[in-house]
Specification:
By secondary structure, this protein is an alpha/beta fold. It has a single domain, classed as 3-Layer(aba) Sandwich (Stationary-phase Survival Protein Sure Homolog, Chain: A). It is built from 8 helices and 11 strands. The strands form 2 sheets. It has a 9-stranded mixed β-sheet with strand order 3-4-2-1-5-6-7-11-8, sandwiched between helices. Strands 9-10 form a two-stranded antiparallel ribbon. Strand 6, helix 5 and strand 7 form a beta-alpha-beta unit. Helix 1 runs parallel beside helix 5. The longest helix is centred in the middle third of the chain and has 15 residues. The model has no long low-confidence stretch (mean pLDDT 94).
């Protein structure tokens, strides 16, 4: 069963409320509804993951009737939108993004964009994370996202949204005319070493660190998200909250079969 016509949409991101990707996503969302709300960080929160602010206050600036800038994480934004700002009716759909950069493979665990969608899944709200892959210091192909995001969203509105499900979408780093199609994918896994601390020294001779991002080649097995975008395809990956490694449960159960005898 798909979503209703004219769904109430909450738009979130991790690049900040003024980022070009969220401006584009709101424009796209309005193709599907006149009931669109934007709650986003007041500045970039990339890499925030599924974190929330529990040790300091979350400050909010309301820009107009349906736009809020939040000094907090993308998860904070989703929670505030759902519980504080849209109190008369919860959103029917959460759209997160459009992120400036990839959210592929293990990026999901770091991504604030994906995590805002994940919070929707936690609360039983259909949610889609959208990202435009880029190459740093090169033009960003926003027109690729502009063309394909409405197509993807329109089809996903017909999805049977089971509890705990969210969808991760990546648009390839190519001009719109070079996109070769849309592919349903699995989540890939790159070789280790994508993120490494790099030591620097400031003008007072005090060391500090940047986390350097570098994506080693590999892990692009046929059918996964890494492989799809190398083929210039839009990648659509259904994800779920339930992360149990079911195949390993019997092995662990066997290891602890005599646990009572060991502990007594």
């Amino acid at each position: 069963m798909g979503l209703t016509a004219n769904p109430r949409i909450l738009v979130v991101n991790d690049d900040g409320i003024d980022a070009p990707g969220i401006v584009l996503l709101e424009e796209i969302a309005r193709q599907f509804s006149d009931d669109v709300w934007v709650v986003a960080p007041d500045e970039e929160r990339s890499g925030a993951g599924h974190s929330m602010s529990i040790s300091h206050p979350v400050r909010v600036v309301q820009r107009d009737e349906r736009h809020w800038a939040v000094r907090g994480t993308p998860t904070d934004c989703a929670l505030l939108g759902i519980y504080e700002f849209m109190t008369d009716k919860a959103p029917d759909l959460i759209l997160s993004g459009i992120n400036r950069g990839p959210n592929l493979a293990e990026d999901i665990t770091y991504s604030g964009t994906a995590s805002a969608a994940m919070e929707g899944a936690v609360l039983g709200i259909p949610a889609i994370a959208l990202s435009q892959i880029i190459r740093y210091q090169s033009p960003i192909h926003w027109d690729t996202a502009r063309k394909y995001a409405p197509i993807v969203i329109r089809q996903l509105l017909e999805l049977d949204w089971t509890p705990g499900l969210f969808v991760n979408v990546n648009f390839p780093n190519c001009p719109v005319e070079e996109v070769t199609g849309i592919r349903a994918t699995t989540q890939g896994q790159r070789p280790s070493g994508c993120f490494r601390p790099v030591r620097r020294v400031d003008e007072r001779h005090v060391p500090y660190y940047w986390i350097k991002i570098g994506f080693p080649e590999g892990g692009d097995d046929d059918g996964n998200d890494l492989h799809a975008v190398l083929d210039n395809k839009v990648s659509i990956t259904p994800l779920q909250l339930e992360m149990t490694a079911h195949a390993v449960v019997p092995e662990i159960a066997a290891l602890f079969a005599d646990a009572d005898a060991v502990t007594n």
